[in-house]
Amino acid sequence: MSESPHSSDPRTVSRRRFVLGGAGALVAAAGSGLLLPGTARADQVLTSNSTGTYNGYYYSFWTDDPGSVTMTLGAAGQYSSQWSNTNNWVGGLGWSNGSRRNVTYSGTFNPGSNGYLALYGWTANPLVEYYIVENHGPYNPGSAGQRRGTVNADGGTYTIYESTRTNAPSVEGTKTFQQYWSVRNSKRSSGTINTGTHFDAWEAAGMPMGAFNYYMIMATEGYQSTGSSNITLGGGGDGGTPTTPPPGACSATYRTTNAWNNGFNGEVTITAGNGGVTNWSVPLTLAGNQTIASLWNGTASRNGNVVTVTPAGHNRTLGAGQSTSFGFTVNGPSSPAPSVGSCGAG
Fold first, then answer.
1. What is the spatial distance between Cα 87 and Cα 248, in angstroms, rounded to a whole number?
2. Active site residue 134
3. What is the pLDDT of residue 2?
4. Residue 311: is the preceding peptide bond cis (ω within 30°)?
5. Tens-place pLDDT, residues 108-165
6. pLDDT the model gives residue 236
7. What letter would DSSP give residue 173?
8. Catalytic residue, candidates 3, 172, 221, 267
9. pLDDT for 246
């Protein structure tokens, strides 16, 4: 569902059928059969839309132009693809749930013209579609969005973009949601991606992440082009070593709990990372026509449109993985929603 040169994205509607129901609700490819744990399968060629697990990895394959593209699943963590004058397709291997992890991959990527190689997934509450783009053709898939800064990660520099999809199909049906992009400035087709570094950079740029209820795959995509790829996930045993937030770190997610004419209630949940956090602090950016009328379970200070919330006392210290929340009432329209900045120790 990228903001690519095409004016519409029919891919989303078809792909949604394979992810409704959240993690674990997988539809196996026809004829895949069941195997005992540890039993490797022979190569399998995909030409029609399907998702499932194969040699220990989650896979997703979608095309709106059957017959023009194939994706071949090989040894554990390996897939290849070939497409010819296809309209739009995307596929790859990974995990049924996203997470903070080091994802190691290697291979070749030849997009022809429009196409990209990216770590791709979704979060819930807030609903976010995210891409860490490692390589792409002449079109930068993030460039249609708003530039939100850069992050130095994984031996290179990535440009961060944010865009909005309005009333668009998604893994949760037709909704309005944000797209987050990290686009690598120096393209590559092999390396290691520390997903947590990108997630933290997005949070710091006021782009809150949600829960990892949906898949994350190392994906190849082609749009109105001809090309090929051959990608292998490797390292860490399962293609990616899970990681945890650094000591003292925390994350913050926002949701609107109630809304009415010219007013709404919001809630922010803070979750401590590895090592816990003391005296957390969360900045909220409000629109110019929004003001906080009341706030509970926290103490607020305001500087322009930015309201910084700190603990009220009883929730000052959180152990590793513990959560707390604060809520507030805003006078003003509920859209746009307040933007939650990076949570950190105060």
1. 47
2. no
3. 42
4. no
5. 999 988 899 999 999 988 899 999 999 999 999 999 999 999 999 989 999 999 999 9
6. 39
7. B
8. 221
9. 56
What's the one-letter identity of residue 301? S
Cα–Cα distance, 2 to 219 (Å, whole number): 13
**Could you tell me the two tokens for 176?**
């309005």
Q: Which of 3, 129, 172, 203 is catalytic?
A: 129
CA distance readout (Å), 227 to 46, 114, 116, 210: 16, 9, 10, 34
Residue whose structure tokens are 């994906």: 219
Is 267 part of the annotated catalytic residue set?
Answer: no
d(CA 300, CA 283): 9
Residues of the chain with pLDDT under 70: 1-42, 235-249, 274-275, 314-315, 346
Predicted local distance difference test score (pLDDT) of residue 18: 35
- The per-residue b/e assignment along 70-102, b for 16 or more CB within 10 angstroms, e otherwise, is bbebbebbbbbbbbeebbbbbbbbbbbbbbbbb
Query: What is the distance between the alpha carbons of residues 96 and 304, in angstroms, rounded to a whole number?
Result: 42
CA dihedral 154, 97, 22, 27 (to 10 degrees): 110
* 0.70 exceeded by pTM: no
List b or e across 307-338, with b for residues whose CB sees 16 or more CB atoms inside 10 angstroms: bbbbbeeebeebeeeeebbbbbebebebeebb
pLDDT at 239: 54
The two beta strands, 156-168 and 57-63, are unpaired
